[in-house]
Each structure stands twice: as structure tokens, then as C-alpha cells.
Amino acid sequence: MRKVDAFFLTWILLNSGPIFVVLLESYAVLCTNCSKFFGVNEVKNQRGKRFNAQIQCPHCDAWLGKSPVLSLLKMVGFYLGIAALIYGYFTPDMRSLTTPIAIISTMVLLVSHMMDHLKVIEAPEKVYVDDSEQRQKYR
Questions:
Q1: In this predicted model, what pLDDT tens digit does every residue of 19-69 receive, in sequence order?
Q2: 41 lies in which domain range?
Q3: Which of 4, 27, 46, 138 is the most exposed place for a label (fewest CB within 10 A)?
Q4: How far apart are CA 54 and CA 29, in angstroms?
Q5: Strands of the sheet with 119-122, listed across from one edge
Q6: CA nearest to 87, candidates 106, 103, 102
Q7: Which among 71, 73, 64 has a CA at the least distance from the CA of 36?
């Protein structure tokens, strides 16, 4: 059985009803190069800052990062939507303008969030193993 140390699901009976409690020991990251999980605490190397931050997979040594443009769009969509909702709440004459702005910025936020995944920035070099003798043997 494979153990992923990110989420432990515990079943607790409270007030005659089941409640799921998720204990977060550490966050897990899935490497897009080797498809293995690793905890955030296992990351030894990182480079870059802010939106260009990259981490190195401890299993395959690939550098992983997110798209800075999508991360920026996600942040701008969130704050613009919140600002439009708050401004429209306190100024009723502007609701016809702030409501569409909030809706569009929320759509931008959701689309950029769905597209913003870790991707391989720099893959490690693959070691070529000459196995032509082994292949000839079984032909």
C-alpha cells in the first residue's frame, strides 16, 4: 500500500453523525516529470523569487515552476474582484459597473487557477544506456 504523507483522513463520530477531519501534516507536490509525490519539507533546492520561483524535485532533480503570467492574472483577478464587490456594496450607484467587473475578474481568476499547474522548467539529462546486445539476444 502506497503512503502519501500529505493527507490523513480520519473518521470521527460526533453528535451521532460522521464528520471527516483532514489532518494536514505537510503539503504534497506531484512532480510532472517523474510523477512521484514529495512533501514540501523534502525540497532542498529552490531558485528564483516571487512569481518566478522554482523548486527541484528530490527524486529526479527536475526544476519545477509555475507560469508567472498565470500567477499574476490569478492574483489580479482576485484582488480586482474583491475591490469591485466592496466598492459596489458601499456605493449603490456604481453597482451596474462594479458587478460585471467582479464577474469578469472572478472568471479570469478561475480560468487562470485551473491552468496554473507546476510544469517542468528544466528536465534532467537522461543517461543513455546501450542495450543493443540485450535486444539482439531476444530477437
A1: 444 444 457 788 888 888 888 888 888 888 888 888 888 888 888 888 889
A2: 31-124
A3: 138
A4: 13
A5: 46-47, 54-56, 63-65, 119-122
A6: 102
A7: 64
CA distance linking residue 118 with residue 58, whole number of Å: 15
Dist CA 38 CA 101 (whole Å)? 39
Q: What are the CA-CA distances from residue 97 to residues 3, 73, 84, 106 (Å)?
A: 50, 21, 9, 15
* 3 found inside a domain: no
Q: In which residue are the cell numbers 469578469 written? A: 104
Query: What's the domain count of the chain?
Result: 1
Q: Residue with C-alpha cell 499547474?
A: 117
- pLDDT of 98: 94
Residue 120: closest CA among 52, 67, 63, 50: 63
Confirm whether 22 is domain-assigned: no
Angle at 93 between CA 92 and CA 99, to 5 degrees: 70
Looking at residue 108, its pLDDT comes to 94
Q: Kindly state whether residue 5 falls inside one of the protein's structural domains.
A: no
